[in-house]
Design a protein that fits this description.
With about 140 residues, this protein is an all-alpha fold. It has one domain (about 5-135). Helices cover about 65% and strands about 0% of the residues. It has six helices and no strands. α5 (about 85-105) packs antiparallel against α6 (about 115-130). The longest helix is centred in the N-terminal third of the chain and has 24 residues, at about 5-30.
Length: about 140
């Protein structure tokens, strides 16, 4: 598959988003189950003194990076005509489905309405900027 410059930039940006989200979790939310074996203490209270900003950075920034990466990859595969509309809808709804799976305790995690609001907001921004996400392809 030959990728154009735009698609390479989108995929590189998505990898950077994933790395930033991972780094944010590692630095500020290392208490989560995924990192528990490392025995690292979160640095958020040392680095971020404002409680509201600390809550945003530790609770939502990683999710915003990760859903952005998902949207960018979906855009690339959509523009390359590798995804049908139902597949795109399913992919873009994955963050919401996983959040509801947490609510019903089907997967480990904490259900949070703010996460759902964040996912919907980021996805809607991408749909506004890249309407191809919801258009039928021929």
């Amino acid at each position: 598959m030959k990728l154009g410059k735009r698609h390479k930039i989108f995929l590189t940006t998505s990898v950077v988003c994933l790395a930033l989200g991972f780094l944010n979790y590692l630095l500020f939310s290392s208490h989560i189950l995924f990192f528990s074996f490392l025995h690292i203490h979160p640095a958020s209270s040392i680095i971020i003194h404002n409680a509201a900003l600390r809550h945003i950075v530790t609770g939502y920034i990683s999710d915003a990076f990760w859903v952005s990466a998902l949207c960018l990859v979906t855009i690339v595969f959509t523009e390359l005509k590798h995804l049908s509309l139902p597949e795109r809808i399913l992919i873009l709804s994955l963050p919401l489905l996983l959040e509801f799976a947490q609510f019903f305790q089907l997967v480990a995690g904490t259900f949070d309405l703010a996460d759902i609001a964040l996912y919907v907001t980021v996805i809607m921004i991408f749909i506004f900027l890249f309407p191809c996400l919801l258009k039928l392809q021929r």
